[in-house]
Structures are given as structure tokens and as C-alpha cells.
Design a protein that fits this description.
- By secondary structure, this protein is an alpha+beta fold.
- It is 37% helix and 20% strand.
- The protein folds into 2 domains: 111 residues, Rossmann fold, CATH 3.40.50; 63 residues, no CATH class.
- Strands 1-2-4-3-7 form a 5-stranded mixed beta sheet. Strands 5-6 form a two-stranded antiparallel sheet.
- Strand 1, helix 1 and strand 2 form a beta-alpha-beta unit.
- Helix 3 crosses helix 5 and helix 4 runs antiparallel to helix 5.
- The longest helix is centred in the C-terminal third of the chain and has 29 residues.
- The chain is elongated and about 70 Å long.
């Protein structure tokens, strides 16, 4: 093992040098959000395509402020992290909050992205609403027999009722609305139009995938 001491916001390593990177209980020691973003951007740069960043950090709170009274303390707002990682360029992101902030992000590969990844969240919300309303119109005509939908690669079909189908689509709709809200709030935050991003409605002991 080789130990290298340096500035994580300006690493001396070449592009695409590592398969993985770890960031454990240290982001809150970085003095500004801009510097944290630069650090994460450097991690992305030195990761190989498909490489993974894994990390965790403490949650904002009075205890953290008191513990770091004579030290740098700049905790990460959980509600902003997924959009920050997206903006920097990570994909396949997981952010979870359960006693502490945990996050995983991957450097995109050179493979073509699935078609769904090329869609805008707002467009997907409109299409989902239309789809749900179309399903609702058929509900009075339902013959009370479950609908079997074959799925490629699965041995048996998925079974739906109108109620289950609408609930499933509505769950995805809420996810996309939350993503739109997070993007809008993050853009306003970066533009100085918001003092902080409102994250209490979306984060508790939860996990968000993107």
C-alpha cells in the first residue's frame, strides 16, 4: 500500500486511474460546498469508467457543531447530495439516511445509456399522468380478473389489477416529482435565491436511487 498526502481538490493522479474511491466521515471537514463539489469532481475524474465512489458522513446537528467548535464543520445537506452528484457527472447514485448519510455513485461507462435515461423528468411526469388517467378510465369495465403481463427475462408474468397498476405508476410519479423539485431547489440555491435547500419533506430514514 502506498500513502499519498495531497490536496483532494487537485489530485496529482491521471484521469481514469482507479476502480474505486472511498470518502468516509471527512466531507464535513471541507470548508465550503464549492470545495466539496471540486473534491467530488476530482474523484470522478480519477475513477475509471464504471468505477464507484462509496462514502458516508455525519448528519447536520447541534452535537456536530459543538464537537467541531474549534474546527471546520461544513456538514452535507442530505437533500442536496443526489443532485450535486448528478450535476458533477455521477450516475447510478444511491443516497440513504439512517443515523448517518451514506452515498454511492458510479462514473458513467462508455456504453450507450438506456432510452429512459435520455428522458427529462418533467416529460416523464406528464406521460405518467396521462397513462394513469387512461388506466382509471378502464377501471369501471374491469372484469375482476387479474391482468398478466409477460416480462422479458422473467420466468413468469407479472400480475396486475387496475388498483395495483395505478398505485405502482403513482409511486414512480412521486419519485420523478421529487427529482424535479430537488433540481429546481438546487438551481435556486446555487443562484443564491435560497438560503438552504428544503430537505425535510424527502429525507428521514430513507433511501433514494437515481
Amino acid at each position: 500500500m502506498t500513502t499519498v498526502i495531497g490536496d483532494a481538490t487537485a489530485m496529482a493522479f491521471d484521469d481514469d486511474s482507479f476502480d474505486s474511491a472511498g470518502c468516509f466521515t471527512m466531507l464535513h471537514h471541507v470548508k465550503s460546498t464549492a470545495a466539496q463539489n471540486q473534491l467530488l469532481a476530482e474523484v470522478l475524474r480519477v475513477l475509471r469508467p464504471g468505477g464507484v465512489l462509496i462514502g458516508y458522513d455525519s448528519l447536520p446537528g447541534d452535537a456536530g457543531h459543538q464537537f467541531h467548535e474549534a474546527d471546520t464543520y461544513n456538514p452535507v445537506e442530505p437533500g442536496t447530495l443526489i443532485v450535486r452528484l448528478q450535476t458533477i457527472g455521477f450516475d447510478r447514485i444511491t443516497v440513504s439516511v439512517d443515523g448517518r448519510l451514506k452515498f454511492i455513485g458510479h462514473k458513467p461507462t462508455n456504453d450507450p445509456a438506456p432510452k429512459v435515461d435520455q428522458q427529462r423528468p418533467a416529460q416523464m411526469v406528464v406521460e405518467m399522468v396521462d397513462h394513469v388517467l387512461g388506466l382509471a378510465e378502464t377501471w369501471p369495465l374491469w372484469d375482476e380478473l387479474p391482468i398478466e403481463v409477460p416480462v422479458e427475462g422473467e420466468g413468469s408474468p407479472r400480475v396486475y389489477t387496475p388498483h395495483k397498476a395505478i398505485r405502482r405508476v403513482a409511486d414512480h410519479l412521486i419519485d420523478h416529482l421529487a427529482e424535479i423539485e430537488a433540481r429546481v431547489e438546487w438551481a435556486a440555491y446555487r443562484a443564491g435565491q435560497m438560503a438552504r435547500v428544503n430537505d425535510h419533506h424527502a429525507f428521514g430514514p430513507c433511501k433514494v436511487h437515481c
